[in-house]
Amino acid sequence: MHEVMAPVLSAKGVKYRMRDNAFVSVANPDALQTAASSLDPKRIQDRLEYWTFLLGPKFSAHEREGMDLHRRYFISQVEYALNIIFKRNHSIHTIFERSCDLGLARLTLNRIANIFGWRVTRRTNGKHQVVLEQIDHAHHILRAYSKNSFVKQYEKFIAFLRIETCSNNLKDFHQKKSLEYLPQC
Predict the structure, then answer these.
(1) Which of 10, 17, 56, 123 has a CA positioned 20 to 30 A from the CA of residue 36?
(2) Number of folded domains that form the chain
């Protein structure tokens, strides 16, 4: 939700620098935390309402009278990212390569499950593996899958190393999908 927090910082006169979807520097980190904390379900729903009105189907007054046109929003994917920013980029690639070596050698099923906080039993379903994927032009991503979630690590813009955790099923973490339950996550 960086695109929502950036205008809040600008309105308060807080200087910041972004690279893609990451805040690389912020003059007042407390202001950034305040902006992030202000992202409550109502504010997110207001933004969603704006975009679904703008991009969604339009109905005439007669059509609106004949049907219930309430929209409900659900969270289907959650991502958490940690960006490790380096002042000089020559060490990023070396650190990433070494972490890939260690990840491929040492990330076992039990260690991956421990990252996500669950026990592996016979009934544990889903994909469980560690892979090193090559995407376009020598960019690599180290991924560790467990159930419906994964952790991935990759270099971004030769400026920072990103570690990202993603889940496509909030039930794995005993969370509810409706936007109204967001504060409980």
Answers:
(1) 56
(2) 2
**pTM given for the model:** 0.73
Is the domain of 110 the same as that of 180? Answer: yes
* 25 and 86 housed in the same domain: no
- C-alpha 34/C-alpha 32 separation (Å) is 5
Q: Has residue 20 got a pLDDT over 90?
A: no
Helix-, strand-, coil-residue percentages of the chain, each rounded to 5 = 40, 30, 30
Q: Quick one: DSSP state of residue 13? A: T
Per-residue pLDDT tens for 61-79?
Answer: 888 888 887 788 888 888 8
51-60, 136-145, 159-168: least confidently modelled range: 136-145
Distance (Å, whole) CA 51 – CA 177 = 20
